[in-house]
Amino acid sequence: xxxIPTNYKAEVxxxxxxxxxxxxxxxxxxxxxxxxxxxxxxxxxxxxxxxxFGRAAAKRAAELIKIGTPHEKISENETEKCLERFDRxxxxxxxxxxxxxxxxxxxxxxxKCAVFRTDKTLKEGINEIRKPFDGINSIYVKDxxxxxxTDLVETLEFDNLIRQAITTMDSAYHRKESRxxxxxxxxxxxxxxxxxxxxxxxxxxxxxxxxxxxxxxxxLTDDVQYFPPQxxxx
Length: 234
Prior knowledge:
Layout (H helix, E strand, L loop, with lengths): L11 E4 L2 E4 L25 H18 L11 H15 L5 E2 H15 L3 E2 L1 H10 L1 H5 L4 E2 L9 H25 L8 E2 L7 H4 L1 E8 L2 E8 L20
Parallel strand pairs: 3-5, 4-6
Antiparallel strand pairs: 1-2, 7-8
């Protein structure tokens, strides 16, 4: 993971509620959920995080990867899933253009899940954001070619983005507090007792599952002390 010292050998992932060692799994930037800035509002969304932990990840990768080692074979089932999705979208002949669905997604996220949020707008957004998702079932991709097909690329990107939008909207609705970039006008204070947790979300189509995992309240090494989070005061 990003955020670990370069001599730290374990890559950790939470699986079924418990942390497991996953050799070779590393993350930097926002995916790593760490910060060398401490109280920076969007801690991992910064260049220095990428530079520091990107270097650490590269050094760790160099230790793990052996020259001449063949790639692991991917199961045919997984390959077929990818190809089926690719062909299904590429051959879409419905009435919904990707650009129209993307615009609907953008407008909903901007109006219902902006920086300042309320229970009312988020609840409306939960329903509205699923409309462009339903539009995928009748999407239209004009260019069917396999060479420099920007229409298809944008469609594949939308397929990814709409799922992220759904989980973002649902996660924001369930977090009844203000924290970092998540500002609830109806819950202006931070609620550490209930929401000092990482949000976990699973998206199965337009259905989502929301859960939480605790925040670590200790450091990985004895080199630095743990600094508990404090209220942001301007």
